Records
---
Amino acid sequence: MTSAPTVSTVGELRASGHVQKSLREEVRDNLLDALREGRDPWPGLHGFEDTVIPQLERALIAGHDIVLLGERGQGKTRLLRTMVGLLDEWTPVISGSELGEHPYDPVTHASRVAAATYGDDLRVSWRHRDERYAEKLATPDTSVADLIGDVDPMKVAEGRSLGDPETIHFGLIPRSHRGIVAINELPDLAERIQVAMLNVMEERDIQIRGYVLRLPLDVLVVASANPEDYTNRGRIITPLKDRFGAEIRTHYPTELEDEVAVIRQEAHLVADVPDHLVEILARFTRQLRESSAVDQRSGVSARFSIAGAETIAAAALHRATAQGEDEAVARPVDLETAIDVLGGKVEFESGEEGRETEILTHLLRTATAETVRSHFRGLDLGLLVEAIENGAMVTTGERVTAREFLTGLPVLGESELYDDICDRLDATNDGQRAGAIELALEGLYLGRKIGKDTDGSETVYG
């Protein structure tokens, strides 16, 4: 963040050559500048480059209010919050004004009186773009007063008459004048509250208990919503939908690389989680989104895989602390801990009651097998299979350290198979090497080349 400008009066502002722009002009100009210069105005958003982002940019250039439709965990809220980056970093406002009006254009009665009284000496403050974004989660108890405003009984008690516009306490939308107001889960708003937004979005005036204030509000209204075929809690009324200039449909990442990038970006990991485990979680999530056993109308949020990565990192740190390991590195055995805690994030079809864990386990194994094929294709693991068929056993589990696991591997003579496995996954330290070889063993088990027995905290391949 740069320092705010030092201009402090309207006279100084005019002398500086400052030009007033409407909010939509400001957003449009900053977006076009970013496109011209090759800058990415949407940092941290993955998988929308060829679908959602072009639609959104066209809507903003057109100056439209926008509603994003999509299932949970598709990045709708993040997308809305990223729009703040298209505002000027600092903008002048009338000092003390309730609605943050531009010094050249006061809109409330109090600000017009102040402008007429002080002229060029009217005090100017500077507002950062982060302060020009307001967000409201639509809940059934949201009122018209919250969004639009109401009569303030305290101001009436001070002696003002009910007809005095000074008695009004403005709500969230008027207070977002010259800024962006985002309403999350718009269908959850009661229909009578949605009706109250109609004039704000079209005529740009507000009506409060019989008052009609012709305030030329300059506000960009953006909203998110689940598709109407999923949510049973409400709907966006037709007149309000008509007032949104653009309705944009979001989606989950279509490419595996984008899914992995989202996990890496959003997960707060307390231990090293190698790339192949993140890939398994990404494939696992995508398997769930394609499964007929899962209610696809509700979707499988990106938070599922993010929480999964955080869980297996926690399992690795728990093992490292309890067993005295120097480095905490997640291994395939930790994936089982994710199933124990993530089932509540998935809505299954009604006929699958009682089979939730079975379904999750099966799809996790499928994702693991796909990852093994992706990384170990063409690698001959026959020597390892032969050693196990001849009676060798390999033990792993939450109480087995990486060093103990590596020490317990069968000797393969002068073969460099273990090194080849580790090279495929760029494994260098003990924890990463143990995880790479453990993944190869799990792949052999899933390919029915060897057996596996799990008993509590211990897993034996044999």
---
Amino acid sequence: MLPNFVLIGFMGCGKSTVGRRLAALTGHRFLDTDDAIVEARNLSIPEIFSQLGEDGFRDLEQQVVEDLVGVAGIVLSSGGGAILREPNRAALKKIGIVVWLDADPDTLFERATRTGRRPLLNTPNPRETFDSLLSSRRHIYESLADVRFDSSRTEQDDVARKVLEEVMRFRSRRG
């Protein structure tokens, strides 16, 4: 049986898109922590941030992650900041093999700002905020990941296939 896949990475790295394609390849169910929060609260992410603040959002995110420990047959796309809390990091490791989708900062920024729906970037200088957040999180992604994949110059379908290959190699090395 295939393991669970836990996709981590900064906003714009392609977790949701790659996750859906990976789920299609593996037959696993695709889950997105942000989608689960939106569905549970019946509010958009920006609305949740506006009403509850980032800490309130992170509380909801932590509950979603903790509820997935022990669930089999999933590809999980975690929010970019889910890794900020130690309980989430521990839970993500229990859920499955952790794959860090990375990309160069310019690519991440371009992708992250396409929709204008990133509450953390609603600042006077979005690029400065983006760079600061990315810099503060990179070491956490690196320390948590079982596998890292750079998606900067790769089509999302190819990323999903290559992630599957890398995870299977990792799993065979791990025994």
